[in-house]
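Summary for the funding panel

The consortium committed to producing paired sequence-structure records for every protein in the target list. Below we show the first two records in order, beginning with the earlier of the two.
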Amino acid sequence: MKKVVLFGGSFDPIHYGHLKMIQSAIKQTKADEGWFILADQAPLKDNKQAPYETRLSFIQKMIKPFKKLKVTTIEKDMPKPNYTFDTIKQLQRLYPGITFVLLIGTDQAVQFNQWKDEQELLQLVEVVVYPRTLDPIDDVFTKLSGETFEVSSTQIRQGLSQETHPAILNEIIIHGVYGEEMLREFLHESRVQHSIEVAKLMAEFARHYHLDTQFYYGLGLIHDLMKQKEKDHELESLLSEEDKKNPPYTWHAIACHHYLSRVYKIKNRTFTNAIYHHVSGQSTSVAGMLLYIADKCERTRKYDTEGFIELTKRDLVKGFKAVKKEAKLYRDNKGANE
């Protein structure tokens, strides 16, 4: 009889630790396949999640090279709230010729007494536990062997880890999937709010010009990621001596370009170059001009920006030149008063 390891969760996002767990479980239980069960909303989690289809696409990107790995969306259309016990029973009805094994981590095992019908679940299916942490494992479970690991989905959402597939990292940044959560780890709240307003205005411009709204929203959201590090004088490791020949007020933009290119492997030059030049205004690409304008004209600025916004919607180049001229006047006046 075919044996399949089931691994359920929100996978928000999936990471290399998840991959290690299911591959180890397949090997140790001598299973034929491993199925990720993507939860619509995990019962013991109350945080806001990325959209279901986004998380599904992340899993698909991660497992694409592995023939033994699949993902099932069975929980998406099951009645809510849905619990693992219900899912296992439904899978056993749908696939009577398969023996299922349920994989959980030690972090889930210590919460197992909070699961719905947990004793009946133990009678329904073998539950195997991967030692994700050093927490003790109850004897009611089958214990797997394996190395513990520190990576978590939370760390990836916050920008504190990049331990997932490069294609997933690219989408996280370019589409701003966890952008607000990430910004709050890097920036003070006032700068977070500025970035959100820039992203909203970028999306507005994108809709007006029939551009990719997600791309422009993500660009606006992430553009100031290194701003606090500039203020705290923590950019040295990212900037070359050549970079430092630029005016200091542009360093955070240059550093953000380098950080996204090197750490997140972002290869979309339109995206990274727009960030590089968003302070200097030296990019004349559509993305570069719109980001420059949105950064200077987002609606919480302490001056009236609506005229520049409307001009930009009528004629992008004229709007860009007008904002750039105003910014130069501001810098000149500021320098004269210092």
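The next record, for a separate protein in the list, is shown here:
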Amino acid sequence: MKLFMLTAVLFLVGLGTAAQTQPAPAPALRTVNVITFGGGVNLPIFVAQRQGFFAKHGVEINLRYTPSSVYLMTGLMEGRFDIASAAIDNLVAYQEGQGEAPTKVTPDLVAFMGLENGFLNLVALPEVKSVADLRGKDVAVDALTTGFAFVLHEMMARAGVNESDVKYVRAGGTPLRYAALLERKFAATLLSTPFDLQAEAKGFTRLGNATDLLGAYQGRAAFAMRGWLKDNEAAAIGFMRAIREAMEWIYDPQNRDIAEALLVANDRDMTSALAKKTYDMFVDKKGGLYRDGKIDMDGFKVVLALRAKYGQPKKDLNDPMKYIDLELYRKAFPGK
């Protein structure tokens, strides 16, 4: 009997010890609704998903592609999306009452991470050989008053082509404009990499690169409504850390083959040869993806200068810190 009791006690103690050593369940991942334009510039997101970087930092991404900046911006401000990855000029435009569309809520937007310079190239029909050849023709933008529209205006102006010499037409986001250019619905448009490479491979003409002309330029950034960031700071930081880890992963040459495969897998017009060219542009030390995720302040000042020049109603836009949250970056990457 004593032996039986001793055995039972030891059995129960063993059960208790086993229960104590069971690992605690992993905390639930916080879903973040992200909206962006389609294309290979989303490689950091593709990588973070594949490599598990989002989950590592406590978030999961519900990724949506937008047909236009109007859909993206109105959806972000109305709470249908949490974080936008798009031209930082969109943020400034809507914040300053210069947006393409009316808003149902008061804009309270802020950028917290820089992604790249836009990789913007002016691409035209095969028979168009110079910017001057665009006189009398339609030139397409996503929206007439936001995004990269003013970059195109400045490129035309510096080439001696006046506003009245061409007709600017709305044609939606880059994937839509790329498809429409192939269908010859207009003479030229700005395309980001890799769409510029894909069009060029089909015989279309590259007329110029925006950053060659403008110098520093802050293209796409990650931004959100301030209220969402305040209530979801941990999720925002998780997103930032995952993207930065993905940037580091992309820049590691050992991962080149996988990165190129991801580009091909996520774009039906991407070929292995074009993926190699795209990867080279993305990791270029001078003009590639922003490895550290910092907003290019010199480039952002150019964004503000162009909006001050072309935006309506006219405004002096000389305070970049009005639109940026540096404190969140410091929290995400202390000491960096």
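Regarding this second record: Residues 57 and 247 are 15 Å apart (CA to CA). Residues 1-19 have pLDDT under 50 and may be disordered.
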